[in-house]
Amino acid sequence: MKSLQTPLHRVKGLGSSHSGTGHFWRERVSAAALIPLSLWFAYAAIGLAGTTTSAPLQFFAQPVNAFLMASFVIISLYHAAMGVQVVIDDYVHSAGTKIALFLLVRLFVIATGSACLIALLRISVF
Known about the structure:
The chain is mainly α. It has helices at 7-12, 20-48, 54-61, 63-91, 95-125. It has a single domain (22-125), classed as Fumarate reductase/succinate dehydrogenase, transmembrane subunit (3 helical TM bundles of succinate and fumarate reductases, Up-down Bundle). The longest helix has 31 residues, at 95-125. The termini are far apart.
């Protein structure tokens, strides 16, 4: 079977945009992983709606629920960061502004993810 790669791609190991295919597949895989996690999250949120404030603490104190919530947070933040990166690549044309926005997005994702994971750890361990 004939390869769909260009000769330059075979030599350098890069695609036409140098990383677009890998980015495309990472977006699709994270989106596929978010389908069952989002269904679980919706089920959990609906089940916890209208309960006392101690019910979510008891719910997330269970290791399976804490793990699923941590997975949901990490994968959704990763997926969102990749989506915002595509928007920045497509619509921001200044190199300096692009770099600054990429750094801000990464900082936001790391800060938000860290805060969520620390909160989950505090709930589940203590």
